[in-house]
Amino acid sequence: MNRRTIPSVTAALASAAALSVAALPAHAGATAGGCAIQPYGLIGARWAQLGGADGKLGCPTTTEREVHQNNVGWAGRRQTFARGQIAWSPKNGANLVVAAWSEGNRAYFDWHRTNRAFDTFIVLQSSAAGGEQVDFRGGFRGRAYTVRRTNGGYRWNVKGCDTGVFGSSCQKTWTVSVTG
Prior knowledge:
Blueprint: H1 5-22, H2 41-49, E1 65-69, E2 73-81, E3 84-88, E4 97-103, E5 106-112, E6 118-127, E7 130-139, E8 142-147, E9 155-164, E10 167-170, E11 178-179
Antiparallel strand pairs: 1-2, 2-3, 3-4, 4-5, 5-8, 6-7, 6-9, 9-10, 9-11
């Protein structure tokens, strides 16, 4: 090889390395706040809003996973964290993300940014100690909590409803469930 070829080969290899790094997904190989797994997308954004590694949920313990409703159709994605879960439920709104976690003697559930305002949200909460359905004032988002009556987790779901002249009209499906 002559001297002119060496710098051009070196430059080509450097360009290829830069392109291969740029082509990796945002979560590949990265760490956040000392976490071995980096959340990404809507779940990662909500996790960051809730305080990230030092926040309500702590570090992720799994990667995002596909969720299928009744083993039939795709419903969204869920990720488990040290103190709860976050799930993306696109059938209930393109940007709808739900989160559940436990803190002190309470279990919390948070649904964030539906694609439109609802008159009411219906929240289902269940645990080994029982379950209940509670209606909440509508809008684009909300948060619920319950005093913990069990050492196990609480499973949560939500869907939006509107009140019309001829009765209520609710979303057809519940969000992907989360446990906290």
